[in-house]
Amino acid sequence: MSSKAIKTLGKFIKPGLFDKGTGALLPEAYKKFYKEWRLTEPTVVHYIPEEGRFKRDPVTGEVQRIQNHPIPLLFIKESNEQIWGGEQVIQGFQIRDWRRRRVPHFWWPHLKRSVVYSEVLNQHISVVVTNRTINLIHANYGFDHYVLKTPACDLKSLLPLTLKRKILQELQKGCPTYEDQPEKQKEIHNKYKQYLTAYTSEEIEWYGYSFTQACKKLEASIEAKNQPVPLKSVYRSELIEKLKEAKISASSEEVAVGNTSTWLKKINPFSKET
Amino acid sequence: MWKSLIRTITPLSKTTNCLLSAETSIQQQLRTTFILKRRINPPLSKKGGPPKKLRTRNYLYELVKDTNCDKQANIDLILTSYVDGLGNVGDRVSVKSYQAYDQLLLPGLAVYATPENLEKYKDVEVKDMKVYSSSTALGVMQVLSKITLSVVMNKDSPWTIQPWHISASFRKCCYMVPEYAISIPEKPIKGPNLDIEGKEFYITVTINKTEQFKVRCRIHHWSTNIRERLPYEEGFWKVPGELLFPEDEEIAKAQSQNK
């Protein structure tokens, strides 16, 4: 028995997202994206982490370990339709005056409506952004570079992830939006094609879906594959086939009868000739 | 603790090919939004063990920095077309970042000064160079061609509009425009005449005897006697006025497009 098996002996392991239901059927490509999105630690935004392993107390000279406890963040559902650039809402307390009790406070990012321009899609998109998003776009020299370079855990919300998938799909097709200008098409494709190397085509297809969206997509594809055929159409086609066969055989019989039925006609009691 | 640190570092190192520059992300984190600090840190957890449960006092935060209040950083751009007051095609300019994003990058008047773009716009032919007589000339032109100047004239005694009337009207709005810089329309405008009340005409202002531009003026009648005064019209500047001379229509059209 392996050591892992001994450790888990007699323990009930709770089934995870990908162990039950439709989740178990999801392809490996989606699991890879999910890992990049949800199970990776994002870049630190709201606090300054201490560096090094140990620190010395300035007064007593006592040596202490350094441990960074990340500040818990709230994910806002509405941010899925916006691009916050890794910022989130912080819930906590403030002490505004030493004579007062602590006061609950929410630190919200400053949101503003602006426009982002995607060069690959050749589209201006009106979105709600933060100043950090614009700074990041500047630092990466453009929205496409920013979206393509940044891992899913930092993009966080579904809108930039969806845009990333669309941009990757567009790059895969070779930028069909610039079909009228072949030179520019080539230039833009060369500029961004380096990002395609990190993904296979299946990974691109499954990139940027939430878990429920991915399940729905899979279910829809399964349903499309196993479309039930109504029995009435089956029976109808069978009947038509049968009729066709019968007709052919009947006509052939008739022909046969017409040729060789001289003695049968004689037997027929209702025929006028007899 | 190390486990959590390794968790943060490993995904970044694994995805290096898709994260082309790892060091930029570390610089970026510091110029963001609210940066907070805990007042009371949670106790140290055991090496390799799970982190200690946070208590209410661990949710007490102090603001270290709000980067939205910081001074905007300048970014380097290369102009792809002529921009008033900035430069011509191929010029490398340094502009405030949000202003640059809204006014230059999104309309497509400039591109980022990346090494590739620097190479691309190294030798671009410069056409239609515009040189102004002073650095503030363009700003003055832009401001004055947008305003509607109220020329307030007497309702009782006769007058004909002279440049000094216009100069005085400018002075009322805190613009010092000398008389020799103003040229009024050739047709004399005489009054008092209540038919021309609220009608508009255009004058020409010359800056430093070089740049010429049109300023819209509107005539108002005013009397020293309170009884004689015309009733005050609420928001009269929002109501578009009629033209005094119908031949000014082209100028009016051109100005409304520039707005």
UniProtKB/TrEMBL annotation, chain A:
InterPro entries: Ribosomal_bL28, Ribosomal_bL28/bL31-like_sf
Transmembrane segments: none
Any single Gene Ontology cellular-component annotation: mitochondrial large ribosomal subunit
Keyword Ribosomal protein belongs to the record: yes
SUPFAM superfamilies recorded: L28p-like (SSF143800)
UniProt GO MF annotations: structural constituent of ribosome
Keywords of the record: Ribonucleoprotein, Ribosomal protein
Assigned protein family: Belongs to the bacterial ribosomal protein bL28 family.
PANTHER family: 39S RIBOSOMAL PROTEIN L28, MITOCHONDRIAL, LARGE RIBOSOMAL SUBUNIT PROTEIN BL28M
Name under which the protein is recorded: Large ribosomal subunit protein bL28m
Automatic annotation (TrEMBL), chain B:
Coiled-coil ranges per UniProt: none
Entry keywords, A to Z: Ribonucleoprotein, Ribosomal protein
Domain Ribosomal protein L9: 76-121
Natural source organism: Zophobas morio
Family affiliation: Belongs to the bacterial ribosomal protein bL9 family.
One Gene Ontology term of the molecular function aspect: structural constituent of ribosome
Gene3D superfamilies, sorted: Ribosomal protein L9, N-terminal domain
Record's GO cellular component terms: ribonucleoprotein complex; ribosome
Keyword Transmembrane helix found: no
UniProt-listed Pfam families: Ribosomal_L9_N
Protein name per Swiss-Prot or TrEMBL: Large ribosomal subunit protein bL9m
Domain of life of the organism encoding this protein: Eukaryota
Gene Ontology terms: biological process: translation
